[in-house]
Design goal:
Largest sheet: 8 strands, mixed
Pfam families: Peptidase_S49 (PF01343)
Order of helices and strands: HHHHHEEEHEEHEHEEHHHEHEHEHE
Protein name: Signal peptide peptidase SppA
Shape: elongated
Keywords: Hydrolase, Protease, Serine protease
GO molecular function: serine-type peptidase activity
CATH architecture of the largest domain: Alpha-Beta Complex
CATH topology of the largest domain: 2-enoyl-CoA Hydratase, Chain A, domain 1
Distance between the termini: 60 Å
Helix content: 40-55%
GO biological process, one term: proteolysis
Number of helices: 14
CATH superfamily of the largest domain: 2-enoyl-CoA Hydratase, Chain A, domain 1
């Protein structure tokens, strides 16, 4: 128990006990997975050691999963296979509702989970968009984006939720100061995309946020030891330097996410993946040049987007409802809410793949 205070490295005995502890967890898990997937434990171990990362198709081919489905299809499948679906009786109100336009503010770095100050959480945003889709009083949506991106999966979940709205009502995207990388990804399924002249958009690319901090730890006197089972179990460690094999696997995985990104943009913009690649690779564009290369439909502000939504929905008198609903905040001091902020930051930094701009551009007038 005193070793962390008396040693700079792990003793042989401590390493042994930790290895045994991990084995008690690891090997039964391997056996359960192997049995459920009808493959041998040795074959599964080989997949773990050599595969490292699997995209959906590779996982199916390896026998790790049965099929590839979107999240909403999984929910439906559970209802059918597991008989968990509940019958609902919906009583429709006999009233004449007002025709409204939803103005959805999508701002901040994109993370999985809940939203917080400066962060757009996919759980909260998807829930908001699903509510708008099912609200019959809302006849059109203006999706106001001001984001440099963030978590890749969270970006896709939000984009798909907006795409689902587009199947029922017009969706107009209005870009603010920045709609880059994941911020552009969540915009691609708009019927029309508006951007200001100076909007920073594009940045179609993927980042793997891998940091090697061993030198820093050594400099300030922090020592680490790793106990692992699985050849590459420490690949995410910030004290592990990737070997050539791991680096190639990571490059392959990042390329898979990049191809997924460019394919989605190509689908949303009705063009080819090859063309999107030619204007992608992380390159940024202004709203003006974005229109020239086909990433943007029109140069204009939020009011122009509202006018477009009103026209497409056939609304004579415009009533705008803003989402998400503002939350009343009580502040008790300068540090209030810092734990929530740090939690969101941790969520972003722990993401394995980021559709995010690697820097922030500020234009100053002097």
């Amino acid at each position: 128990a005193a070793e962390p205070f008396s040693r700079e490295d792990m003793s042989e005995e401590d390493s042994l006990q930790l290895t045994e502890y991990l084995s008690d967890i690891y090997h039964p898990t391997i056996e359960v997975i192997a049995e459920s997937r009808h493959i041998s434990p040795d074959s599964l171990q080989k997949l773990i050691d050599e595969g490292i990362f699997f995209d959906g198709e590779e996982a199916v081919e390896a026998g790790l999963v049965d099929t590839i489905l979107e999240k909403q299809d999984v929910d439906s499948l559970i209802g059918k296979k597991g008989k968990f679906a509940k019958e609902k009786v919906v009583m429709r109100e006999w009233r004449t509702g007002k025709k409204k336009i939803a103005l959805v503010v999508a701002e901040g770095n994109i993370i999985q989970g809940k939203s917080s100050r400066g962060y757009m959480g996919s759980d909260d945003m998807v829930k908001t968009l699903e509510g708008i889709k099912n609200d019959e009083d809302i006849k059109a949506v203006v999706f106001r984006v001001n984001s440099g991106g963030g978590d890749a999966l969270a970006s896709e979940l939000i984009a798909n939720a907006l795409k689902n709205i587009g199947e029922k009502k017009p969706v107009i995207v209005s870009m603010g100061g920045v709609a880059g990388s994941g911020g552009y990804f969540i915009s691609i399924y708009g019927d029309k995309i508006y951007a200001d002249n100076a909007t920073l958009t594009g940045s179609i690319g993927v980042i793997w946020p891998g940091f090697l901090l061993k030198g820093l730890y050594d400099k300030i006197g922090i020592s680490w030891d790793i106990v692992k089972l699985g050849e590459h179990a420490d690949i995410l460690s910030d004290i592990h330097r990737w070997d050539d094999y791991e680096r190639e696997k990571i490059k392959k995985s990042v390329k898979w996410w990049y191809d997924r990104f460019t394919s989605a943009v190509a689908s949303g913009r009705d063009t080819t993946r090859e063309y999107i690649h030619s204007i992608g690779e992380g390159r940024i564009w202004s709203g003006t040049s974005g229109k020239r290369v086909g990433l943007v439909d029109k140069v204009g502000g939020m009011l122009d987007a509202l006018d477009e939504a009103q026209e497409m929905a056939g609304i004579k008198k415009r009533e705008v409802v803003i989402y998400p609903k503002p939350k009343r905040e009580f502040r008790f001091g300068p540090s209030f809410g810092i734990s929530t902020y740090l939690s969101s930051l941790k969520s972003l930094l722990s993401s394995e793949y980021l559709y995010i701009m690697p820097y922030r551009i500020e234009v100053e007038e002097r």
